[in-house]
Amino acid sequence: MNNEQNDPLKNASKIPMIAVLLTGAFIAILNQTLLTTALPSLMADLEIDANLGQWVTTAFMLVNGVMIPITAFLIEKFTSRKLFITAMVLFGIGTLVCAIAPTFGVLITGRMIQAAGAGIAMPLMQTILLLIFPVEKRGAAMGMVGLVISFAPAIGPTLSGWLVQSYHWSILFWILLPIVILDIIAAFFVLKNVTTLRSPKLDTLSIILSSLGFGGLLFGFSNAGANGWLELTVLLPTIIGVVTLTWFILRQLKLPQPILEFRVFKYWVFTLTTIIGMIVFMSMIGAATIFPIYMQTMHNFTALESGLMLLPGAVVMGIMSPITGRIFDKIGARYLGIVGLGMIFLTTALFTNLSDSTSMTYVTVIYSFRMLGVALVMMPITTAGINVLPRHLIPHGTAMNNTMRQIAGSIGTAVLVSVMTSVALNQGEAGNIGMVDAQIKGVNTAFMVATGISFVGFVLAFFIKSKPKETVNAETYGVNSTQQKTATDHS
């Protein structure tokens, strides 16, 4: 393969771009979990209850999930430089609104503005990195994305727990604001336009259907964990989500320039790797939700201590993600997927026998090995799926991949939390064991379900094809010299 032809930017100009993109992604993802341990302080200050308080996270997730599918359209409509700066300006405005918020309503408004920016920034960042690197170096590029995705959400609860002990909760937004401003200034000077503009027409109905479809599903699933699956607050948005999403998909298949291209699923490898990625994300997010509940409610650890328990696993994943990216570039995703999902399956099974005397060391060590397995799978699987798409479908592939992961995370959390709570309730009502033991039984049962989900992913990993020994040519991945020239011309 002619690397120069497939590499529209010189290595020297890539480094500042990568730094700007990863910084933006880091603070966007960090922001998702930054308020988790600060919630009690925030609730007391704004005089709200827990049901209302959890909306600082739910509202962010919903708007984020609604924006992600639309980014494929935006990437083809606007230059990558203009779109990234706009996304970060939105995020910055939202951060400022949150920092000065005098009431809960203003805080939620700020979170929604933040989420709109973050929802654009994440798929855009992945798309740009995939376009500026040739196919044989994409694993290393996506490994850096894996570092950000793994480390940012884990450091959030620990950082917020430490800061809120000494300062007002608004400090969490004030410390982000200067970083956002510096990133916007840097992006103005160093970002290049690398995407191919196709000037798609805005289909208003598709935007509405996408928002109702994905938003309804995410809202329904997020409520299911706490309220059960048969509540109106779960059934109604889920039904609306399914109906409008079906309508949205059928409409996209008829439009000459769809908002989100569902034909990416015609590529078998993309479909397989997306399903595996969803399973991994479902298992990862669900466990990260259950562990703090187990540690704090049933083990009497503080929020900071439970955050510290998750931190070594995040560090392991962060360190390994760039390494596994480079390994992927040499051997492909098959063996990484088999080993990684095997590790996830075994370590999840080891969490099915927790008790009120299980040591923090045991949980921390096993969780760290579990995250090592996630590092072996997450970005290599994602990159393998994107690599089979033609260049013009890469924005749609990254948007679809991020959207499916978001939905999988919501489903995984809802399923595992609802299993945990229902088993605990049934055991408690039976009266055979104490309340704490009943809750722990619920946690163990939830991990049994997670073990089954992980096993399905492990089996699917064997269907990933090995990387061909011969050099992969650009035509295999739908990248041709004309498309590369177009991208270079735009820069």
* Main sheet summary: none
Total of domains: 2
Succession of helices and strands: HHHHHHHHHHHHHHHHHH
Shape: globular
CATH architecture of the largest domain: Up-down Bundle
Using only C-alpha atoms, the radius of gyration works out to 22 Å
Describe this structure in words.
About 55% of the residues are buried. This protein has about 500 residues and is an all-alpha fold. It is globular, with a radius of gyration of 22 Å. It folds into 2 domains: about 10-200 and about 260-490, Up-down Bundle (Growth Hormone, Chain: A), CATH 1.20.1250; about 200-255. About 75% of the residues lie in helices and about 0% in strands. It has 18 helices and no strands.
